[in-house]
Write a structure and sequence with these properties.
The complex is a heterodimer of chains A (436) and B (162).
Chain A (H helix, E strand, L loop, with lengths): L2 H28 L5 H23 L7 H19 L1 H24 L10 H13 L7 E4 L2 E7 L3 E3 L1 H25 L3 E3 L2 E3 L6 H17 L2 H19 L2 H21 L1 H11 L4 H5 L5 H13 L31 H34 L3 H25 L17 H24 L1
Antiparallel strand pairs in A: 1-2, 2-3, 4-5
Helix pairs in contact in A: 1-2, 1-3, 2-4, 3-4, 3-13, 4-15, 5-6, 6-8, 6-14, 6-15, 7-8, 7-9, 8-9, 8-14, 9-10, 12-13, 13-14, 13-15, 14-15
Chain B lengths: L2 H59 L8 E6 L8 E3 L4 E4 L5 E2 L10 E6 L2 E6 L7 E2 L2 E2 L4 E2 L5 E4 L2 E6 L1
């Protein structure tokens, strides 16, 4: 079976999931088995097939599994967001369409994505600007103590970090393509560890600075970990020097520890992470309420979950509606999935991400030139870390931070930005697989 | 009333989900196995083939007729891999206005010269900033080339064939 036909086949399960999911939610909500769920499934399939036809025409050699995996994640997203709030789901569907359109635009405009290299400094500065945007008075706003969003009242709200992550990876990939050999040359080996000359740690210091800057400006450990880890991954792939990673992680740990104890908001998050069930912390505004309730919700799911629409998300009988699980459609969506589909559902979501990232790294391996390799590896790493940061936060592996679960969480910036990421990966994959 | 349907839908959802993931893993594994074979063939075989063939030819023909020094592109920005440049009259490599132009950011404008001295082809670095590598060893002075030698300038790689 040809690669493109395999892709088409892979879209069928995703739309089946949309149908089954909506049917489940409808039954729970109004006790009817409505054929509207079939319509939704069909519309979803139609959109995915449109995307597929576009890929078939423009990227005939691209990886056949990435798009179906994304469709699967999107189907999860649309069902779960609908289950939480029907109006949000309508917007989510619009953003999915907008994401597909932007995917197509990216593929057409950056057909030769290597020309991105020529604009690397512009891209770097724009990304840096995007990161600082939420702190600008008037348009920036604070949500739960972290500065992640930009709001122009009445026009739109968006999260610039979602786009900045792609920009930074593009910049670093093109920068290191030029300098990686210089960085490796002149290295000394001490006790079996390669120590490059001190001056070549410059880029590491710059990356570290970016990570710390994010922590200081956004008050958000998760985002800075995502950026920093992604950039460190590109550095490691470029130089093959474990010493950079070790030194980099130590430096990050030190910086994060210092800032974590000195920025009150970050400190609160760490405290909530360490002692979620402490009664005083639980009762305090901005305390451990969210983390603790997320754990309760996941525990309630058991092995196979309570079923669609059965999780208790709001305090019964409360007016106005009080959420038991704050931000269920964005940060906490993984907890809702685990609650309704159980451990099996949650693991399936993580597996889907794992497979997607594996395809990304495979693309990096197949790519012929170093810019493509670094770009594909960096984008995959940043994507993987984003999933780690939010799933890790929800499951209390690391302190919880407000990062979206790519393609699943409710949120326009996240969906659109990740479709751009997908477009870049497929472009690299198309070029790489064409050659072999 | 519709409880069994609801439960059925949930398990159906999970079943479809896992079957799909299994399918991706299975075909990805197949892809991986085939990919490994493919890479080995495309990476190693042509080089081994070419060098084998030409070293045999140069052994038989004793230079005069079969002596066709060429520089084959393995990997270089702006050059098709597999294309070979004739070196019978020598050539200069670099980023500037020279015989073999490199788009490599590591290359100097006049980076290295390959010249013919009778039946010997010699490569020499022209004082480039980032150096020329012959079989991954930095060039210090003029060096004779042997069939199958690999020349690297920055990210661009070539094989010498004769």
């Amino acid at each position: 079976m040809s690669a493109r036909n395999r892709e088409l086949l892979g879209l069928i399960p995703a739309s089946l999931l949309v149908t089954a999911g909506f049917a489940g939610v409808f039954i729970q909500r109004s006790n009817v088995l409505s054929n509207v769920s079939l319509t939704y499934g069909a519309i979803f399939l139609g959109l995915c097939v449109a995307g597929h036809v576009f890929i078939r025409i423009t990227l005939p050699h691209a990886d056949p599994y990435m798009f179906p995996l994304v469709a699967l994640l999107a189907s999860f997203g649309i069902v779960m967001v609908y289950r939480i709030s029907a109006t949000d789901a309508r917007q989510q569907a619009q953003w999915f369409v907008l994401g597909l359109v932007l995917f197509a635009v990216t593929v057409i405009v950056f057909r030769d994505y290597r020309k991105l290299e020529q604009y690397r400094y512009i891209i770097a500065f724009v990304s840096l600007g995007l990161l600082l945007l939420p702190r600008l008075p008037g348009i920036g706003y604070q949500a739960n103590g972290a500065y992640l969003g930009v709001r122009i009242p009445g026009v739109f709200v968006f999260q610039p970090t979602e786009f900045a992550k792609i920009g930074f990876v593009v910049f670093l990939a093109s920068y290191l393509r030029d300098t990686r050999q210089v960085m490796v040359m002149g290295a000394r080996r001490i006790l079996g560890v390669t120590i490059p000359p001190l001056k070549h740690f410059g880029p590491v210091v710059v990356i570290w600075g970016i990570g710390m800057l994010i922590l200081i400006t956004l008050h958000d450990i998760g985002s800075s970990l995502m950026f920093y880890g992604g950039l460190l991954a590109v550095l490691y792939v470029a130089t093959d020097r474990l010493s950079f990673v070790v030194v980099g992680l130590l430096a990050f740990g030190l910086g994060a520890w210092y800032l974590g104890t000195h920025i009150p908001h970050v400190h609160d998050r760490v405290e909530a992470w360490l002692h979620p069930l402490d009664p005083t912390l639980y009762a305090r505004p901005g305390g451990s309420f969210q983390v603790a309730n997320s754990m309760f919700a996941q525990a309630a799911g058991g092995m196979f979950g309570q079923g669609f629409g059965q999780a208790t998300l709001t305090v019964p009988g409360s007016h106005p509606v009080a959420y038991l699980l704050p931000a269920p459609q964005t940060d906490m969506i993984y907890a809702v999935i685990t609650d309704e589909l159980g451990l099996f559902g949650g693991v399936a979501v993580i597996l889907t991400y794992l497979l997607f990232v594996a395809r990304g790294f495979k693309t990096a391996l197949l790519a012929r030139d170093s810019f493509s390799t670094l770009l594909a590896a960096g984008l995959s790493a940043v994507f993987a870390l984003q999933v780690f940061v939010i799933v890790g936060g929800v499951t209390r592996v690391i302190p919880l931070t407000g990062v979206t679960l790519p393609f699943i969480s409710y949120g326009g910036s996240s969906i659109v930005a990740n479709f751009v990421l997908l477009a870049l990966l497929l472009l690299i994959s198309d070029r790489a697989r064409q050659a072999t | 009333m519709l409880e069994p349907v609801s439960v059925g839908l949930k398990f159906g959802f999970l079943a479809v989900l896992y079957l799909f993931l299994l399918w991706v893993v299975r075909s990805a594994l197949k892809d991986l196995r085939r990919g490994r074979g493919g890479v080995v063939v495309s990476d190693e075989a042509p080089a081994a083939d070419a060098t084998g063939m030409y070293s045999a030819a140069s052994g038989l023909g004793e230079l005069d007729d079969a002596f066709e020094p060429r520089l084959m592109v393995d990997r270089a920005l702006g050059h098709e891999p597999g294309v070979a440049y004739d070196l019978s009259d020598g050539a200069t490599l670099g980023r500037g206005d020279v015989e073999i132009q490199l788009e490599d950011p590591f290359a100097s404008s006049r980076h290295a010269r390959i010249s013919r001295q009778g039946h010997v082809i010699v490569i020499e670095d022209l004082g480039s900033t980032n150096g020329t590598y012959l079989n991954e060893q930095p060039l210090t002075g003029p060096q004779p080339l042997h069939s199958g030698d690999r020349i690297r300038i920055g990210d661009s790689e070539f094989s010498y064939l004769q």
